[in-house]
Design goal:
Blueprint lengths: L1 H28 L11 E7 L6 H9 L7 E6 L17 E5 L7 H11 L4 E5 L9 H5 L7 E3 L2 E4 L3 H21 L11 E5 H7 L2 H4 L6 H11 L4 E3 L7 E4 L4 H15 L5 H20 L5 H22 L9 H21 L9
Helix pairs in contact: 1-5, 1-10, 1-11, 5-11
C-alpha cells in the first residue's frame, strides 16, 4: 500500500511541476510588456580575494556585444592582488572599496547602489563568466521588479558533476514554482532588480548581523511586498561558475546556503522542504520492502524527469549519466548535511 501512495503522490507532484514549468515558459515567450534596456542597467560586482577569477570575468566583459550603462566593482577588503587585476578597466567601470568596519557581500552591494545611476541593478559574482550576447538577451526580456536569471555551476570530475546536480535540484524546482508566482531560491551571482523597489522594501537592518544571504533575503522582501517576480530561462543569460574543488569547500558552501535560508522561511519554502524530505526519506524506507527494485527504477526515472528540462536550459545534458548515482547517494548526503548544520559553523573567505 505504501509504495502505491508514494508513487501516486509524487506522480501528481511531478505533473504540477511540469504545469508550472509550462506556465513559466509561456510567460518568458510572451512579448506583451516593455523590455529592459542595457543603457538603464548598473552592474554591481562585489569581490574579495578573487585575483584568480577576475581575469576570466574581465575577458568576458570585454567581449560583450552590448555594454551596460556602468559596472561598479566593490572591493571587500581583499588581501590578494585583486585590485591589480582591475587596472585596465574601461571608462564605464569604476572601483569603490568598503572601509573600516564595513564588510560582507550584503554591505558591498548596498555600497555599490549608493553610487549606481541605473534604474535597474544586476548583481554578478566575481567568479563567473558571461555570454557575449548577454545584454542582447537582456534587451529581449520583459521588465519585472525582480528577475531571477540562470546560473551554470560546472564541474570537471565525477564528484563535480554530483555537486552540479545538487545545485540544480532546487533551481529546477524553482522554475516550476515561478510558474505559480512562488519562487523559493535565487542567486546573487546573476540577479536583476528594480533599484527603487529594492530601496523601498529592503530589510537589511533586520539581517545585517548575518554574514551571507543577500539574495535570499532580497527574494523574501520582494515576495512579502508582492512585487512582480519572474524566472527567465534564456540560455544566453546563463552565467558560468565552477563547482567547489574539494569536499570541505563543498560542504561549507552548502552549509552557508542552508544557514541563511532558515532566517527567511515562508509557507511555500516550508512545504517544499517537507515534501523534499518525504521524497528522499520515503525512497530510502521503500528500499527495504519487497518492491525495492521497482522503487529504485521509478525513482531514477522521476529524477530524470525533474532534472532534464533544467539541464537543457544550462546546457549540461551531458552530465545526465550521473543521475542514477545521484539518486543512490543523495539520501546519505541529505542525512549528513542535516547533522552538519547542527555541529558545524560554515566559513567563507576566512569569515564565519
Amino acid at each position: 500500500m505504501l509504495p502505491e501512495i508514494y508513487l501516486t503522490f509524487f506522480s501528481i507532484v511531478l505533473l504540477v511541476y511540469y504545469l508550472g514549468m509550462r506556465r513559466n515558459q509561456s510567460r518568458n515567450q510572451s512579448q506583451l510588456g516593455e523590455t529592459y534596456q542595457a543603457s538603464t542597467i548598473s552592474v554591481i560586482i562585489p569581490f574579495r580575494n578573487e585575483e584568480n577569477n577576475l581575469p576570466k570575468l574581465l575577458d568576458s566583459i570585454k567581449k560583450l556585444t552590448i555594454q551596460p550603462f556602468e559596472i561598479i566593482w566593490v572591493n571587500d577588503h581583499s588581501e590578494d592582488k585583486s585590485i591589480q587585476q582591475l587596472t585596465d578597466i574601461s571608462e564605464n567601470q569604476k572601483i569603490i572599496s568598503l572601509i573600516n568596519e564595513e564588510k560582507g557581500k550584503k554591505t558591498a552591494i548596498r555600497k555599490g547602489m549608493e553610487v549606481a545611476k541605473g534604474t535597474h541593478i544586476i548583481t554578478w559574482d566575481a567568479d563567473i563568466s558571461v555570454d557575449p550576447d548577454y545584454f542582447k538577451a537582456i534587451e529581449q526580456t520583459q521588465i519585472a521588479k525582480l528577475t531571477i536569471l540562470p546560473v551554470r555551476m560546472t564541474g570537471n570530475s565525477f564528484l563535480g558533476f554530483l555537486y552540479e546536480l545538487d545545485y540544480y535540484f532546487l533551481n529546477t524546482l524553482n522554475v516550476g514554482l515561478t510558474g505559480f508566482s512562488n519562487p523559493i531560491v535565487t542567486s546573487g551571482a546573476n540577479l536583476l532588480f528594480n533599484k527603487a523597489s529594492f530601496l523601498a522594501i529592503d530589510s537589511y537592518k533586520n539581517h545585517q548581523h548575518i554574514a551571507s544571504g543577500d539574495d535570499h533575503f532580497l527574494l523574501h522582501d520582494f515576495k512579502k511586498a508582492k512585487k512582480s517576480i519572474q524566472t527567465v530561462t534564456h540560455s544566453t543569460l546563463v552565467v558560468e561558475t565552477k563547482t567547489p574543488t574539494s569536499l570541505k569547500e563543498f560542504f561549507h558552501q552548502r552549509l552557508r546556503w542552508i544557514s541563511k535560508s532558515k532566517h527567511a522561511m515562508d509557507t511555500t519554502t516550508t512545504w517544499i522542504s517537507f515534501i523534499g524530505s518525504i521524497y528522499t526519506l520515503g525512497f530510502v524506507a521503500l528500499l527495504f520492502t519487497d518492491y525495492w527494485k521497482e522503487i529504485l527504477i521509478i525513482k531514477i526515472l522521476y529524477d530524470f524527469l525533474i532534472f532534464i528540462p533544467y539541464l537543457g536550459i544550462v546546457q549540461r545534458i551531458k552530465i545526465s549519466w550521473t543521475l542514477p548515482w545521484f539518486t543512490l547517494l543523495y539520501p546519505f548526503y541529505f542525512v549528513l548535511i542535516g547533522v552538519l548544520t547542527i555541529v558545524v559553523k560554515p566559513i567563507w573567505k576566512g569569515r564565519k
